[in-house]
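Team,

Forwarding the record for the chain on the shared tracking sheet. I've put the sequence and predicted structure together so nobody has to dig through attachments.
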Amino acid sequence: MIIPDPLRPPLCLVIDTNVLLLLIGYQCSQLENTGPLERTRVLNKIRGRDDISPDRFDDLWQLFQSAKRRIVTEHVIAETYGLRERLPHRKDLVWRGAIKLLTDPGIEELSCRVKEVDEKTGYGKILTELGPADAGLLYTAEREKATLITDDGQLVHWAGVRSVPAVSLHQIGGRR
């Protein structure tokens, strides 16, 4: 696996569904003026576990803010909005937070056809193991020469196989 240097933020990030959910939750906590302890509790609830230190969420937010480009695929948007019930905020706040992220600092939505992924050499097995959303995310990161940010170990594994830079939540800010 290729791990980016934490002192030099990646120019371009491709963001996984669970990470996008965390970013929306972080944004909602800012809109609500939630303190760090409550924000950490909520973000751990969104993740469904509490195995990373609370400052990693702030590091994630800083990494997200510092990137020149932030990309998600249409599949990730669809999955994220389908999982929005994992966000323990009011529905209107979730939509405001999600829309705010899309415009400021800005997230690009890129199309990624499953057929296109399947036709790329070496992606047949990846597509069947990861499914269309994650395989498309990996394909997009490779195509855009971007760093993949995810909380999914299997996706990190395949990023390593494809020599795509990837970083998991456990690695963000960990070497400062």
